[in-house]
Amino acid sequence: MADEYKPPALPAPFNNTRPAPELLTQGAEAHLYKTVSLDPSIPAALKVRPSKPYRHPILDRRLTRQRIIQEARCLSKLVREGVSVPAVLALDWEGQGGDEAGWGGAWLMMEWINGPVVRVVLEQWEAWMKKNASSLDAAQLEQENSRVRDLLRRIGKTLGGLHKAGVVHGDLTTSNLMLRLPTEGTESETSPTGVSMQGEVVLIDFGLASQSAQDEDRAVDLYVLERAIGSTHPRSEPFMEELVHGYRESHRGAVSTLKRLEDVRMRGRKRSMIG
Ligand SMILES: Nc1ncnc2c1ncn2[C@@H]1O[C@H](COP(=O)(O)OP(=O)(O)O)[C@@H](O)[C@H]1O
Ligand SMILES: [Mg+2]
User: Fold this and answer.
1) Which domains does the chain have, with CATH numbers?
2) Among 44, 202, 244, 271, which is most exposed with the fewest C-beta within 10 angstroms?
3) Alpha carbons 110 and 113: distance in angstroms, whole number
4) How many angstroms is it from 136 CA to the middle of ligand 2?
5) What distance in angstroms lies between residue 133's CA and the mean position of ligand 1's atoms?
6) Where does residue 136 rank: exposed (0-12), middle (13-18), buried (19+ CB within 10 A)?
7) Is 171 in the active site?
8) Which Gene Ontology molecular function entries are recorded, alphabetically (predicted)?
9) CB 128 less than 6 A from any atom of ligand 1
């Protein structure tokens, strides 16, 4: 049997909090934990960037610190601008200690978003449709497709709000979009698929984000997401135009960004023809 995975030691004070933070995901750059903030009933997301032992310690410290501060800055700016992102609760760019002496990582604690990532929602929906779509009548089929169109439109609108606030995300995939589950008491939608698409679209993961109001940067943001949806959610891809619609309606600058998007797509096609 393979050795059980042991996550790296947490920085202080999280090596010592009860209940212990629960490791949710481990990316190349960051580990994501669920923990609590101030009160055990308030959930929080803790993003830890461990130091990288193979990098020179001074460079490592500088990069880790820059990335986490950058992410926190973007988030707090976006909260102020009314864009739907998790609020920043706490931050330490010189995470010290834990059990490991000289731990040079950094961490960011933010509001917990209660709900699924869009990748999971679309994957579940597509899996159900693949198996069962033939059992739906025309009206039901139309209803299902229109739920996806509506979701993509809401995503486009949220991205428009992000760009309008002067930030480009830099890493848009359906794993970096979440749906905040509606609060109890809201009537839930009924669908034979059992997959809800309700909830506010929330943007996460600003580790590669930057401040920019350039059409090129904005268009590349959209293009990257378009490609990601095309490759991971083939059944949803035909509805991509809805995302563009939602985006177009979100702010006045959208028109020139969308024009640029056509150039970016063209360059992408040329590149894939060449090689
Ligand atoms: N604020 C949050 N609330 C709830 N879950 C979150 C939150 N932030 C991140 N997650 C979960 O953790 C995963 C990884 O977080 P992310 O910021 O995207 O880090 P990475 O750089 O590793 O992709 C997300 O895909 C999501 O499932
Ligand atoms: Mg991510």
Assistant:
1) 22-111 (3.30.200.20), 118-274 (1.10.510.10)
2) 271
3) 9
4) 34
5) 31
6) middle
7) yes
8) ATP binding; hydrolase activity; protein serine/threonine kinase activity
9) no
Angle between helices 215-232 and 240-248 (to 10 degrees): 150
How many other β-carbons are positioned within 10 Å of the β-carbon of residue 58?
A: 9
Q: Which residue, judged by its Cα, is nearest atom 5 of ligand 1? A: 113
User: Looking up tokens 């992410």, which residue turns up?
Assistant: 71
Would the CB of 60 count as within 6 Å of ligand 1?
A: no
Query: CB 251: neighbour CB atoms within 10 A?
Result: 15
Distance CA 111, CA 181 (A): 14
Instruction: List the chain pLDDT tens, one digit each, 275 residues.
Output: 556 766 667 888 888 788 889 999 988 789 999 999 988 889 999 999 888 878 888 888 888 888 899 999 999 999 999 999 999 999 988 866 555 555 668 899 999 999 999 999 999 999 999 999 999 999 999 999 999 999 999 999 999 999 999 999 999 999 999 999 988 777 777 899 999 999 999 999 999 999 999 999 999 999 999 999 999 999 999 999 999 999 999 999 999 999 999 999 999 888 777 76
Q: Is 118 in the pocket of ligand 1 (CB under 6 A)?
A: no
Active-site pick, 39, 150, 171, 263:
171
The pair of three-digit structure tokens given for residue 155, joined into one six-digit string? 């995503």
CA–CA distance, 168 with 214 (Å, rounded to integer): 9
Distance 141 CA to ligand 2 centre (A): 31
